């Protein structure tokens, strides 16, 4: 159910006397005032859709983009209200009215924040969730080699719209096609073309953002410092992203993809992969390693996932020269278009039509916990053997090693807020997966293993700081204490892991654009203006 203004205030009937699942009591009068504010500030653009916990549609909308079953439990803190804007002005109204009436906001574009921070909070404060799913227009301009894409669009929708306009244009972003543009681009966004073209954020040329005053800013009006921050620094600390303008990239009409299961000598091949995939092959070639195990497998499975922006004959020549240990054969190579490679990497069936990319939902119900590291020095075969043995302690997991090099090593650490450039060989993600049906005890055991795996990897990964990718959000790195003022010293613990030397500049930008920390969450950038410490 959604409300026109004639019926909007009947929403109050769905609340008890006060909303008190948080440390702050929020009364029906406060809700009344907030809704009246929304009505006054957005009425000229028609109905605004607002959902309350007792409404039949509330849970359906909330869970429509919860990608991690860890956050579907009844105990997970939930929004006081959900707003699903259909016009930019309704986002402005929600920001302005939330700030005026003491409500925090969470903003969800695709729901892939790995700790659920786009739709929940561990801070136990009342919040409104802005679900951007209705703001997903995409305007592709092939003549200008660019596109405007609204924040609620998924990268699958973006890839599809580009492919419908041109077979020789693409965009360098991630593999999971239900990821929302707003979050993905603002934290960096890496994928199979990053060695050639960099991150998604490296190819953002403009943006539209609602600031703390409810104003819409673009690159010119927000200034270069804020524009710098929202590319790799996580835009949710600074405002609500409405849209990004991106630079499209050239792709060949035919490229080559291969998925090779390593049946023998996995340790030797992966040890050698560290040198070849990062330093020795052209930037048009992406070779990613996935090590996994399901509960039905006794042993680990190691796979190389390859994409080459060229024909199979050239790939064969490169691999024979640089990586003869693989013994890659012609029938291992599949020639296809770029958009077909998107489907393959997203693990759609071979017979899937292209418009499956427009599907915003997933049929898989899975719970998971992810942690990340950057590797800066090559690991030995002996070290990999130890790591593999540790992997065998978990019955269902996936670890993905994604190679840097190429364009990723050419862009400076401070070109945008994303800092992980030259000096990094690859990013490694550790993921434990399980069914929520296994129960709470099993869930705790899986999370425990990921944490133990992370601790075990300490000698082998980056140091001072031990870096992490904010796109693989991890609250184990730290978060603000409940009912306290965020401090620089707290945030620095995880902030320097995510942003390294760029953290202080992000704090400076935050202090200028949001000094009262309205756009705050469990791991947001803190403003120095709130600090009482020296």
Automatic annotation (TrEMBL):
Signal peptide: 1-20
Residue intervals passing through the bilayer: none
Cofactor(s) it depends on: FAD
FAD-binding PCMH-type domain sequence ranges: 75-251
GO MF term set: FAD binding; oxidoreductase activity
Entry keywords, A to Z: Disulfide bond, FAD, Flavoprotein, Glycoprotein, Signal
A Pfam match: BBE
Domain of life: Eukaryota
Record family assignment: Belongs to the oxygen-dependent FAD-linked oxidoreductase family.
Protein name: FAD-binding PCMH-type domain-containing protein
Protein species of origin: Stephania cephalantha
